[in-house]
Structure formats: C-alpha cells, structure tokens
Amino acid sequence: MFILPAVIVVGWILSWWGARRVRWILLSAAGVVSVLCVVIGRQELGPPADPRTVNCSSTWACTDPGSLYLVAAGLLGFGCCLVLLILAILGEAMVIWRRRRISDSEVVIRRSSR
Questions:
Q1: Model pTM greater than 0.85?
Q2: Is the pLDDT of residue 34 over 80?
Q3: Sign of dihedral through CA atoms 102, 106, 108, 112?
Q4: pLDDT digit string, tens, across residues 80-90
Q5: Cα-trace Rg, the chain
Q6: Nearest to 52 by CA among 61, 43, 39, 44
Q7: DSSP code of residue 47
Q8: pLDDT of residue 95
Q9: What's the mean pLDDT in 80-107?
Q10: Which pLDDT score, from 0 to 100, does residue 101 have?
Q11: pLDDT in tens, 38-88
C-alpha cells in the first residue's frame, strides 16, 4: 500500500537533479497512475455484500482486501502527488525569485563599478 507513494516521493526527489520538464512529467505520470489505481480498485470491489446475510461487520469488511489495498494505495499516491505539486510550485517560485535577486544584484554591482 505504501509502495506507490514511496516511489512517487523518491522519483520526485531524484528529479530535482534533472531537468525541470522531467519533474513535471514524473509528477503527472504518478498522478495518472494513482487515479488508475483508484479506478481499477473500485471496479474490482464488486457489488457490496449485505452485512446481514454475511458474517461481517460492515460492507467494507465484506470486500476483498486486495482491491481495498489498491484503492488505498491510489488515494495515498494521489494525496502524495498533490502535496508534491504544492512543494514543486513553491520550489520553482523560490528558484525564480533567487535568480531574479541575483541578476538584480549583478546589475547594481555593474552600475556602481562604472
């Protein structure tokens, strides 16, 4: 259940050493895979069992745990993608802000040296 989110986080961290495009492609692909996990897991749940006829406490307890793990992994992966999306946007904004600040300070240094 935690394999998909762990792979997403490790891939996202490693992508910071690559091109910016790689990071966004990996994050987009991870989001698509997470949504597919939820959709496939939901389809495999099958019809809900009636807890009154089967010896289980709730409808979720009457389902196959394999499909529940797939849905949980997809939801965790999607949540992970959302958090990493916010972090990536903040990281990109900080990089842009820092580059502007450095270029502005270089302009000031050039003007003062004349």
A1: no
A2: yes
A3: positive
A4: 888 888 888 88
A5: 23
A6: 61
A7: S
A8: 83
A9: 83
A10: 84
A11: 888 777 766 555 556 656 665 556 666 667 777 788 888 888 888 888 888
Q: What would the two tokens of residue 52 be?
A: 């009154």
Do 68 and 41 meet the contact criterion of CB atoms below 8 Å apart?
yes
Enter the tokens of residue 81: 């993608």
Which one-letter DSSP state was computed for residue 54? T
Q: Does residue 46 come out as left (phi exceeding 0), alpha (psi in the -120 to 50 range) or beta?
A: left
Chain centroid to CA 59? 29
**Structure tokens belonging to residue 97:** 């802000």
Measured between alpha carbons, how far is 48 from 25 in angstroms, rounded to an integer?
Answer: 37
Beta carbons within 8 Å of 72's beta carbon, 6+ residues apart: 1, 41
CA 68 distance to own-chain centroid:
19
Residue with tokens 């069992």: 49
CA dihedral angle for residue 92, residue 97, residue 98, residue 101, rounded to 10 degrees: 160
Nearest CA-CA partner of 38 in 80, 92, 78: 78
Contact 90, 19 (CB under 8 A): no
